[in-house]
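User: Can you predict the 3D structure for this chain?
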Amino acid sequence: MLDANLKIIAELKDFITMVGSDREVLNKFCTSESDFTRIRKLPFDKLVLLIAKLCKKTLSIELEGFFKEIGAWDSCSVSAFTQQRLKLEPTFFAWWNFVLWNSFYNYYGDAVKRWKGYRIIAADGSSISLINNPALSKHFGGQSNQQSNFVLARTFYYYDVLNELVLLAQIKPYRTSELSIAYASVDLLAEDTVTVYDRCFGNYKMAALHLWQEKERKFIIRAQEKENIIKAFILISFIITIFIFFYKL
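Assistant: Here is the predicted structure, written as C-alpha coordinates:
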Protein backbone atom coordinates (compact mmCIF):
# COMPACT_ATOMS: atom_id res chain seq x y z
CA MET A 1 0.00 0.00 0.00
CA LEU A 2 3.05 2.26 -0.05
CA ASP A 3 2.29 3.28 -3.63
CA ALA A 4 -1.30 4.18 -2.70
CA ASN A 5 -0.14 6.24 0.29
CA LEU A 6 2.34 8.16 -1.86
CA LYS A 7 -0.42 8.93 -4.36
CA ILE A 8 -2.69 10.17 -1.55
CA ILE A 9 0.05 12.48 -0.26
CA ALA A 10 0.60 13.75 -3.80
CA GLU A 11 -3.13 14.52 -4.12
CA LEU A 12 -3.04 16.49 -0.86
CA LYS A 13 0.00 18.47 -2.00
CA ASP A 14 -1.56 19.11 -5.41
CA PHE A 15 -4.69 20.50 -3.77
CA ILE A 16 -2.62 22.99 -1.76
CA THR A 17 -0.72 23.98 -4.91
CA MET A 18 -3.91 24.34 -6.94
CA VAL A 19 -5.59 26.54 -4.33
CA GLY A 20 -2.48 28.67 -3.77
CA SER A 21 -1.88 29.24 -7.50
CA ASP A 22 -5.47 30.17 -8.43
CA ARG A 23 -6.43 33.51 -6.89
CA GLU A 24 -10.14 32.98 -7.56
CA VAL A 25 -10.12 29.65 -5.71
CA LEU A 26 -7.93 30.97 -2.90
CA ASN A 27 -10.37 33.83 -2.29
CA LYS A 28 -13.00 31.25 -1.34
CA PHE A 29 -10.85 30.23 1.61
CA CYS A 30 -9.75 33.73 2.68
CA THR A 31 -11.47 36.23 4.93
CA SER A 32 -10.45 39.01 2.51
CA GLU A 33 -9.42 39.15 -1.16
CA SER A 34 -6.22 40.94 -0.10
CA ASP A 35 -5.07 38.02 2.09
CA PHE A 36 -1.92 36.13 1.06
CA THR A 37 -1.08 38.68 -1.65
CA ARG A 38 2.19 39.87 -0.11
CA ILE A 39 5.33 37.79 0.30
CA ARG A 40 5.50 36.70 3.94
CA LYS A 41 7.55 34.24 5.97
CA LEU A 42 4.38 32.20 6.37
CA PRO A 43 2.51 32.16 3.04
CA PHE A 44 -0.62 30.11 2.38
CA ASP A 45 1.02 26.73 1.72
CA LYS A 46 3.39 26.86 4.70
CA LEU A 47 0.59 28.08 6.98
CA VAL A 48 -1.56 25.08 6.04
CA LEU A 49 1.27 22.62 6.68
CA LEU A 50 2.06 24.19 10.05
CA ILE A 51 -1.56 24.01 11.21
CA ALA A 52 -1.78 20.40 9.99
CA LYS A 53 1.14 19.43 12.24
CA LEU A 54 -1.22 19.57 15.25
CA CYS A 55 1.18 21.48 17.46
CA LYS A 56 1.65 20.02 20.93
CA LYS A 57 4.40 22.25 22.35
CA THR A 58 4.35 25.98 22.97
CA LEU A 59 3.71 27.90 19.77
CA SER A 60 7.09 29.67 19.76
CA ILE A 61 8.94 26.32 19.96
CA GLU A 62 6.73 24.79 17.25
CA LEU A 63 7.36 27.75 14.95
CA GLU A 64 11.12 27.56 15.41
CA GLY A 65 11.11 23.80 14.78
CA PHE A 66 8.88 24.12 11.71
CA PHE A 67 11.10 26.69 10.01
CA LYS A 68 14.16 24.52 10.70
CA GLU A 69 12.38 21.56 9.08
CA ILE A 70 11.70 23.50 5.89
CA GLY A 71 15.27 24.82 5.77
CA ALA A 72 14.47 28.47 6.54
CA TRP A 73 17.14 30.42 8.40
CA ASP A 74 14.69 32.67 10.25
CA SER A 75 11.38 31.92 12.00
CA CYS A 76 8.35 34.19 12.40
CA SER A 77 6.82 35.54 15.58
CA VAL A 78 3.80 34.10 17.36
CA SER A 79 1.93 37.30 16.56
CA ALA A 80 2.70 36.98 12.84
CA PHE A 81 1.45 33.39 12.83
CA THR A 82 -1.76 34.42 14.61
CA GLN A 83 -2.41 37.15 12.06
CA GLN A 84 -1.82 34.79 9.14
CA ARG A 85 -4.03 32.10 10.65
CA LEU A 86 -6.94 34.54 10.92
CA LYS A 87 -6.82 34.99 7.14
CA LEU A 88 -7.58 31.33 6.42
CA GLU A 89 -11.17 30.12 6.53
CA PRO A 90 -11.64 26.75 8.29
CA THR A 91 -13.64 25.47 5.30
CA PHE A 92 -10.31 24.86 3.57
CA PHE A 93 -9.61 21.94 5.90
CA ALA A 94 -13.05 20.46 5.29
CA TRP A 95 -12.28 20.36 1.56
CA TRP A 96 -8.75 19.12 2.18
CA ASN A 97 -10.19 16.29 4.27
CA PHE A 98 -12.56 15.47 1.40
CA VAL A 99 -9.51 15.13 -0.89
CA LEU A 100 -7.90 12.84 1.71
CA TRP A 101 -10.67 10.29 2.10
CA ASN A 102 -11.76 10.45 -1.54
CA SER A 103 -8.16 9.67 -2.57
CA PHE A 104 -8.01 6.87 -0.01
CA TYR A 105 -11.08 5.11 -1.40
CA ASN A 106 -9.85 5.67 -4.94
CA TYR A 107 -6.29 4.39 -4.58
CA TYR A 108 -6.95 1.61 -2.06
CA GLY A 109 -9.72 0.19 -4.26
CA ASP A 110 -10.53 -3.41 -3.32
CA ALA A 111 -8.33 -3.10 -0.21
CA VAL A 112 -10.88 -0.75 1.40
CA LYS A 113 -12.38 -2.60 4.37
CA ARG A 114 -16.11 -3.24 4.08
CA TRP A 115 -18.86 -5.30 5.71
CA LYS A 116 -20.95 -7.21 3.17
CA GLY A 117 -19.96 -4.60 0.58
CA TYR A 118 -20.82 -1.59 2.76
CA ARG A 119 -18.66 0.97 4.50
CA ILE A 120 -19.62 1.15 8.19
CA ILE A 121 -20.08 4.76 9.29
CA ALA A 122 -20.43 5.72 12.94
CA ALA A 123 -22.41 8.93 13.49
CA ASP A 124 -22.28 10.77 16.78
CA GLY A 125 -22.17 14.17 18.38
CA SER A 126 -20.37 15.59 21.35
CA SER A 127 -19.40 18.83 23.05
CA ILE A 128 -15.91 20.28 23.34
CA SER A 129 -14.36 23.01 25.48
CA LEU A 130 -12.95 26.08 23.75
CA ILE A 131 -10.69 28.88 24.89
CA ASN A 132 -12.63 31.36 26.97
CA ASN A 133 -12.44 34.61 25.06
CA PRO A 134 -15.17 37.12 24.09
CA ALA A 135 -15.25 36.23 20.37
CA LEU A 136 -15.64 32.48 20.90
CA SER A 137 -18.08 33.00 23.75
CA LYS A 138 -20.28 35.23 21.59
CA HIS A 139 -20.38 32.78 18.67
CA PHE A 140 -20.47 29.38 20.37
CA GLY A 141 -21.95 30.16 23.79
CA GLY A 142 -21.58 27.65 26.61
CA GLN A 143 -22.43 27.27 30.26
CA SER A 144 -21.73 29.15 33.45
CA ASN A 145 -21.88 28.71 37.21
CA GLN A 146 -21.30 30.97 40.18
CA GLN A 147 -17.53 30.86 39.74
CA SER A 148 -16.90 31.10 36.00
CA ASN A 149 -18.09 30.80 32.41
CA PHE A 150 -17.28 27.89 30.09
CA VAL A 151 -17.11 28.27 26.32
CA LEU A 152 -18.41 25.10 24.63
CA ALA A 153 -19.20 23.97 21.11
CA ARG A 154 -21.32 21.19 19.63
CA THR A 155 -19.61 18.75 17.28
CA PHE A 156 -20.87 16.03 14.94
CA TYR A 157 -18.91 13.37 13.05
CA TYR A 158 -19.20 10.69 10.39
CA TYR A 159 -16.41 8.14 10.98
CA ASP A 160 -15.52 5.13 8.84
CA VAL A 161 -14.84 2.68 11.67
CA LEU A 162 -13.22 -0.08 9.58
CA ASN A 163 -10.84 2.23 7.71
CA GLU A 164 -10.38 4.74 10.56
CA LEU A 165 -11.26 7.83 8.54
CA VAL A 166 -13.18 10.93 9.59
CA LEU A 167 -15.47 11.65 6.63
CA LEU A 168 -17.26 14.63 8.11
CA ALA A 169 -16.53 16.85 11.09
CA GLN A 170 -18.77 19.77 11.99
CA ILE A 171 -18.61 22.32 14.79
CA LYS A 172 -21.62 24.43 15.74
CA PRO A 173 -22.75 26.72 18.56
CA TYR A 174 -23.30 24.82 21.79
CA ARG A 175 -27.09 25.24 21.81
CA THR A 176 -27.36 23.49 18.42
CA SER A 177 -28.84 20.03 18.91
CA GLU A 178 -27.08 16.90 17.66
CA LEU A 179 -30.34 15.84 16.00
CA SER A 180 -30.63 18.98 13.87
CA ILE A 181 -27.06 18.53 12.62
CA ALA A 182 -27.71 14.85 11.90
CA TYR A 183 -30.93 15.64 9.99
CA ALA A 184 -29.06 18.08 7.73
CA SER A 185 -26.20 15.64 7.13
CA VAL A 186 -28.11 12.60 5.85
CA ASP A 187 -27.95 13.87 2.26
CA LEU A 188 -24.15 13.60 2.45
CA LEU A 189 -24.19 9.84 2.99
CA ALA A 190 -23.16 7.66 0.05
CA GLU A 191 -25.19 4.71 -1.22
CA ASP A 192 -22.58 2.14 -0.18
CA THR A 193 -22.72 2.99 3.54
CA VAL A 194 -24.43 1.65 6.64
CA THR A 195 -24.63 4.39 9.25
CA VAL A 196 -24.78 3.46 12.93
CA TYR A 197 -26.44 5.83 15.41
CA ASP A 198 -26.80 5.91 19.18
CA ARG A 199 -30.23 5.78 20.80
CA CYS A 200 -30.60 9.58 21.06
CA PHE A 201 -31.08 9.58 17.27
CA GLY A 202 -33.92 7.07 17.34
CA ASN A 203 -37.08 8.67 15.95
CA TYR A 204 -39.38 8.45 12.91
CA LYS A 205 -37.87 11.50 11.21
CA MET A 206 -34.34 10.08 11.24
CA ALA A 207 -35.58 6.81 9.74
CA ALA A 208 -37.64 8.66 7.13
CA LEU A 209 -34.72 10.85 6.01
CA HIS A 210 -32.71 7.71 5.22
CA LEU A 211 -35.56 5.88 3.52
CA TRP A 212 -36.78 8.82 1.44
CA GLN A 213 -33.48 9.32 -0.40
CA GLU A 214 -33.55 8.68 -4.15
CA LYS A 215 -31.89 5.40 -3.19
CA GLU A 216 -32.40 4.59 0.48
CA ARG A 217 -29.42 4.81 2.82
CA LYS A 218 -28.88 1.84 5.10
CA PHE A 219 -28.83 2.61 8.81
CA ILE A 220 -28.87 1.09 12.31
CA ILE A 221 -30.15 3.01 15.32
CA ARG A 222 -29.73 1.75 18.84
CA ALA A 223 -33.00 1.97 20.77
CA GLN A 224 -34.70 1.02 24.04
CA GLU A 225 -37.50 -1.51 24.24
CA LYS A 226 -39.80 0.93 26.06
CA GLU A 227 -40.00 3.23 23.01
CA ASN A 228 -43.26 2.94 21.07
CA ILE A 229 -41.57 2.41 17.71
CA ILE A 230 -39.60 -0.52 19.18
CA LYS A 231 -42.65 -1.99 20.91
CA ALA A 232 -44.48 -1.98 17.58
CA PHE A 233 -41.51 -3.57 15.82
CA ILE A 234 -41.23 -6.35 18.41
CA LEU A 235 -44.96 -7.03 18.29
CA ILE A 236 -45.03 -7.24 14.49
CA SER A 237 -41.93 -9.47 14.48
CA PHE A 238 -43.54 -11.77 17.04
CA ILE A 239 -46.76 -12.04 15.01
CA ILE A 240 -44.81 -12.79 11.82
CA THR A 241 -42.73 -15.44 13.61
CA ILE A 242 -45.87 -17.16 14.97
CA PHE A 243 -47.49 -17.03 11.53
CA ILE A 244 -44.45 -18.64 9.87
CA PHE A 245 -44.27 -21.30 12.58
CA PHE A 246 -47.90 -22.42 12.12
CA TYR A 247 -47.66 -22.09 8.33
CA LYS A 248 -44.79 -24.59 8.27
CA LEU A 249 -46.85 -27.02 10.37
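The mean pLDDT is 90. The chain has two domains: 2-91, 113-223.
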